[in-house]
What we know:
Elements: H1 24-39, E1 43-51, E2 54-61, E3 63-65, E4 70-71, E5 78-79, H2 84-97, H3 122-127, H4 141-144, H5 151-159, H6 175-189, H7 193-202, E6 211-212, E7 226-228, E8 232-234, E9 249-251, H8 253-263, H9 271-277, E10 289-293, E11 296-305, E12 308-315, E13 320-329, H10 333-344, H11 363-366, E14 371-374, E15 382-387, E16 390-395, E17 401-406, E18 410-413, E19 418-424, E20 432-439, E21 442-448
Antiparallel strand pairs: 1-2, 1-13, 3-4, 5-9, 6-9, 7-8, 10-11, 11-12, 12-13, 14-15, 14-21, 15-16, 16-17, 17-18, 18-19, 19-20, 20-21
Helix pairs in contact: 1-10, 2-6, 2-7
InterPro entries: AmpC-like (IPR050491), Beta-lactam-related (IPR001466), Beta-lactam/transpept-like (IPR012338)
Protein name: Class A beta-lactamase-related serine hydrolase
Pfam families: Beta-lactamase (PF00144)
Amino acid sequence: MKLHIFMGLVTFLVSIPSMANMTDENKQKLDTYLTILDKYNKAMLSVAIYHEDQLTYSHTIGKLDVKKNIPLQADSRFRIGSLTKSFTAVLVMKAVEQGKLSLTQHLADYFPQFPRGKDISLEQLLAHTSGLYNFTDAPEYLSSMTQPTSQDALFAKMASYPLDFEPGTKTRYSNTNYVLLGLILEKAYGVTYGELLARQITKPFGLEHTYVGKKINTEKGEALSFKFNEYWEPSPETDMSIPLGAGAIVSTANDINYFYQQLFKNKIVTKASLKMMKPNNTHIGKGLMSFSFHEKTFLGHNGSIDGFNAIAGYYNEDKMSFVVLSNATNTPFNDILTAVLSAYFNKNFDIPDFTLKPIDLQADQLTAFTGKYQSRMIPRDIQIFVQNDKLYAQPSGRSSFSLQAYPGDEFRFDSAGIIIRFNRISDTQREVKGFTLFEGDGQFDFTRM
């Protein structure tokens, strides 16, 4: 998961002084930012930031249940999706330490009927190098995800797809890997995944609000998820018999922070096991991913399921961890993450103005903005063109995307949090000379070629 999904490498060009804690001014600014998201129905979420074992910042906005008008609290439980994989990987590494599993074992040792199981090691499942097709990408998945599914039926479905590539030759993220690891853990210990999670992690470390989810029960503090269509409406609810070790855990922002703080202190698995979990030549490791904010590299994981989004990260130099759990978003999740990290690391971020309304421009008006633009800050040109009476932008080597017009020569690609603000020569000379591109906390000037 990358915080800058459009420009990528520019995150490494800016230096930010490291600091161990947020300033009061930045806490207040982040409070304001989140309050505005709440006011304009842009998100419902829980944020928590820790420095070592101490809570540095916490804020919740929105509803646990919109219909019943139940607000979210700091201890509200969210489905965390693929963030579950960090827990599953830890359980596997603990099983290796306890002599229950070996990473050199093969899928066929536990499921001999699985096609090519003799060629796929447990280590390859952990590292997403197995070649197994991601069953949640299948076209029919959306029509079946809300229905209870037996393990036999789930197993048969995962086994029915051909390999994406030969095991060990590539890295490609697949939920299939971690569903199978969850099932293997159950075979190795003779207990359910949920029981093993409680025995090995949540009870020893006091994670009282972390467990394998069932049907959402708001009376137990479990949040529903929502999508926005003029108003918040419930999202479909995945039956938790399906994601298992790939995405079935429910937790809180505080519990996940504590989990990561203890993990990186080598309190949950050994130092050697933790080292094996970390990414090497790719950003995908064994239950951990790496992502960057400016020159800082975090280890953690992200997740999404239904209308939930989640991300957790740990920055070793500051012993800092952060967690954002959302049950509804109507604005780019990436923007929220950027604001949270900018507030902690004393980097400026903008408070969005959601009062601006999009406008319609005629094709001849859009033509004034067309052309090829270049920047000294980024080694990538951008072509601006009109197609079907809409303005489009296409960075060199990438796909084009449509832009929505706003007042003041501003255009936006909302799903990626990108704003392009065109610059004219002067008030009297109206020819467009360039634009400034805003993405997250980045700002990049382009001139017309």
